[in-house]
Amino acid sequence: MEIVAVICHTMLALSALLYVARVAFGPSLADRVIALDCLLITGVVAIGVEATRTRSGTYLDVLLVVALVAFIGTTAVARFIERQSQP
Amino acid sequence: MSIGEAATSLALLTGCVFVLLAALGLWRFDDLYSRIHAATKAITLGVLLVIVAAALRMTHLDDTLKLILAAIFQLLTAPVSGHMLGRAAYWVGTPLSPHTVVDQLGPGADDGEM
Amino acid sequence: MTHIPAITWLLFVWLVLSGDVSARNIVAGILIAVGLVTIFQPSRHVDREIRVRPIRVLIFLGYFFIQFIRANLQVALAVLDPARIRHHRAIIAVPIAAPNDVAVILLANAISLTPGTFILEMHHEPPTLYVHILQLTTVREARLAILELERYIVRAVESPGALRRVEELIRQVAAEESDGERWV
Questions:
Q1: What are the boundaries of each domain within chain A?
Q2: Which among C68, C55, C77, C79 is positioned nearest to C155, based on CA atoms?
């Protein structure tokens, strides 16, 4: 299980780097926001992997809150983009 | 390694592979809307797999319930946020890649639909 | 008060989050749920004439789950080899029979998780969905796939006449442009 967790975290770290790169480069605001949303969800997945490895539910509240914040943040920026198209 | 541990490990690995695939997809696709496809679907499956693996390994029932709640939440909200982003980006005029068919008014034209 | 389902759901979420099922906590949960519902006033425009069929709901969930897995396989293949979709993206208009709000919401959310489709916009006058397609074969096939999904949903969350309208739409779409342009 330890080896599996290490492999998983390596993949997640790589994904996080790619997402951050997209936040930096993404030509439009929507690109950046999608990447940010996915970055937060990658955090959620990392917490999930840790919870599976340690079999403890200590950080599950953090998992839920991060997932919620990711959704609300993405929706808020989407509404902002929408409002931009109405002069 | 027991069957349960093997199944959990497989679920964890597959979930993280899909997160990585989504990250690659954000780079290899050339327009925003395809990236939304990759981000929404692959990430949701990744999260679901990891949450299922974690739920199987929890010792308390309320932890498992919290994880199930998180899974339901993620499944319900991922399409919604992706849709809102795609729609907003379309009406601002975010370009499509070499597209084949568009059955809607030209990009950027304000339909007054909002 | 017609917000009983909302209150029940909020109470359940409260109990799961606080992890403590004592009488005191249940009362606190009910108070908070009622307070939230009064402050935020969820919409009351739910149609009264829908009938939920549990077996059909399960069938729909099974179909949806299979489609979700296929959607991810398609995305995985497309990521590994983007040439598959390079010239096959599209936005198509799909006429739907929109029987009630619940069915439309279910359909819109389900579309975003089925192979190659992603909902972009919706018009009400002739109920139409605008869907972004990742890998278009023919417009007709894509529309039929979405109408098929709607048929599963309409069977699960029925309102009078809806099933008939969906099947009529399916026949209409299947009949027209039988030699439409094929992009694959």
A1: 2-85
A2: C55
The position carrying tokens 């339901």 is B72
Residue B16 lies in a domain: yes
Please tell me the total count of domains within chain B.
Answer: 1
Task: For chain B, say whether A23 makes contact (Cβ under 8 Å).
Answer: no
Predicted ipTM of the assembly: 0.90
Structural contact between residues C19 and B69, judged by C-beta atoms closer than 8 angstroms: no
CA distance C83 to chain B (A): 10
Question: What are the φ and ψ backbone dihedral angles of B73, each rounded to 5 degrees?
Answer: -60, -45
The pTM (predicted TM-score) of the whole model is 0.87
- Are the beta carbons of B100 and C93 separated by less than 8 Å? no
pLDDT of A19 above 90? yes
Mutate to test the interface with B, among A2, A4, A77 (most CBs of B within 10 A): A4
Answer yes or no: is B69 within a domain: yes
In this structure, is residue B53 part of a structural domain? yes
In a domain, B110, yes or no: no
User: pLDDT digits over B65-91, tens only?
Assistant: 889 999 999 999 999 999 999 989 888
